Amino acid sequence: MKHYFLSLLALILPFLSTAQEVVEKGLDQKIDEAFQPIADTFFDIIFFPVYKGDTLTIPFVLVLLVSSAAFFTFYFGFPNIRLFGKAINVVRGKYDELDQHSAGDSNLAIDGDIPDTIRDESKEGEVTHFQALATAVSGTVGNGNIAGVALAIALGGPGATFWMIICGLLGMSSKFVECTLGVQYRDVGEDGTIYGGPMYYISKGLKERGFELFGKIAAVIFAIFCIGGSFGGGNAAQSNQATIVIKELFNWESTAAGAIVGLVLAILVGVIIIGGIKRIAQVTEKIVPFMAIMYILACLYIIFSNFSFIDDAIALIFREAFNPTAFGVGSLIGVLLVGFQRAAFSNEAGAGSASIAHSAVKTKYSASEGMVALLEPFIDTVVICTMTALVIVIFNFSGAFQYGGDGSGAVLIDGISYEGAGITSKAFAQYIPYSNVFLTIAVVLFAVSTMISWSYYGLQSWKFLFGRGKTADLTYKLLFLTFVVIGAAASMGSIWKFSDAMIFAMIFPNMVGLFFLFPVVKKQLNRYLSAIKNANL
After folding, report:
1. CA-wise closest residue to 420 among 53, 96, 149, 104
2. CA 474 – CA 482 distance, rounded (Å)
């Protein structure tokens, strides 16, 4: 602990000692100018198109993501609907006794194991089903739900909301598959620490199928992209939006305001992430339900305060989904792509990141955690994103801004340009007194909880590449905290381009693992459902 704080202090001192120079030279602008070319390059590489027209570009990664989610939905018999009730029961502990003994698990012999000799996997793991869900939800429920939804509507109009919901429902199936595999192929250290995620199920699973070298290469590629994702969407994008609302709340126009806010956030996050998954789970299981309930209640208050507009808002969302009029998109495919992209960024289904947190669960049935995981896109996209969208659409019935804007994601409200969380903040301010304070707190809580969860995801990938030593851990954490500052200082455009690129890059190697190993998931699902049936639960 002492060495950690000394290293953290070494990171902070240069910022403090040059504070006056920062104000004079405009550090925020300098950071953004240096970062923007990097973001543009990564974005162009990851979002290479399968079709490119004068007004429409269809990136291959989105086609891969959505078609894969649709395939898993049909192959597993609509698990997003069929297994939803059982997923709730797993979280609330109805089937916990299955993890305590082998009652009802006679079907294990079919898999080549004898119930009395099989390894008791229920003794492995570090967190409960609920803690794993809370940690993973805290990684997905973030400012993608506030800023990302606002960006989707600003670009694609109300119709983008419909396609976000569709993507969320399909994403439940992808999340089920990848999180089942995360538990199935996890590593358990000598001290009981769990190491899991796509890098493990890709390397182990493909080795079982005779593709050891290919599996190792794909796993390494995933780990690299996941580290990038932890720096981008799981970090920089979060601190960026937290900084926007903090600067707006205090009317802070300093040329170094972003860097200073980022430094404070880095210190806060740094104190938390040193504790590892158990500390993160303890924090997130308290923060996530509180912040989610607080935000949902505020949205519901606004929605039902405008009860007469609800049917109009829903009708507009459906109409614009198939007949979009937003200037920035102008076509059905365009608004569909905007909705899918923002939903995928928000819930991360198909990226594989959540399986890293779910791998740490205490269970001997990998499919049980897959069921728990399918709740995430529902909570994140179908519930919270839709709430945000309805608030913004109802707010804009007054004609506050033009859907589509100038195509950049920024809109003019009362002659002032707003983007991301700023749009949502204006919508809240219309109906809730002092909502700027409320939303600032909500955005900061969303940001911090997402950052601490993603620090764990990135660290697990870092360990996979560089070993499990303390020096390697500390190096990663210092780099992670540096990106907190970069995200706060750089512009929203460059940060979100970089973040999109890193999150979506993870999809390529992750899908390699999912398509090689989905039959394993089918086998584990049947095993778990049989155990439930035999135990009469």
Report:
1. 149
2. 12
C-alpha angle with apex 158: 157 to 159, nearest 5 degrees? 90
pLDDT in tens, the chain (537 residues): 455 444 544 544 444 444 444 444 576 778 778 888 888 898 889 999 887 876 678 899 999 999 999 999 999 999 999 999 998 888 887 777 776 654 444 443 334 343 343 344 445 555 666 776 766 666 566 667 888 888 889 888 899 999 999 999 999 999 999 999 999 998 887 777 788 899 999 999 999 999 999 999 999 999 999 999 999 888 998 898 888 888 888 877 766 778 888 888 888 888 777 665 556 666 666 666 677 788 888 999 999 999 999 999 999 999 988 888 765 555 777 788 888 888 888 888 889 988 887 888 888 888 988 998 898 889 888 888 999 999 999 999 988 888 876 666 778 888 888 878 888 888 998 898 878 888 888 888 888 888 887 888 899 899 999 988 888 888 999 999 999 999 888 887 888 888 889 989 999 999 999 999 999 999 999 999 998 888 776
| Residue 65 CB contacts under 8 Å (≥ 6 apart), including other chains | 174, 340, 344, 350, 504, 507
Q: How far apart are the C-alpha atoms of 93 and 133, rounded to whole Å? A: 13
Residue 537 included in any domain: no
Q: Note whether residue 509 is domain-resident.
A: yes
Residue 378 placed within a domain: yes
Which residues form the domain of 72?
Answer: 2-532
Nearest one of 437, 418, 400 to 298, comparing CA atoms: 437
Calpha distance 405→425 (Å, rounded): 17
Three-class HEC string of 67-130: HHHHHHHHHCCCHHHHCHHHHHHHHCCCCHHHHCCCCCCHHHHHHCCCCCCCCCHHHCCCECHH
CB atoms within 10 A of CB 493: 17
Domain assignment present for residue 477? The answer is yes
Amino acid at 169: L
Name the helix (H) or strand (E) containing 54. Answer: none
Q: E strand or H helix at 183, and its extent?
A: helix 159-184
CATH of the domain at 358: 1.20.1740.10
Q: Are 167 and 350 in contact (CB under 8 A)?
A: no
Domain count, the chain: 1
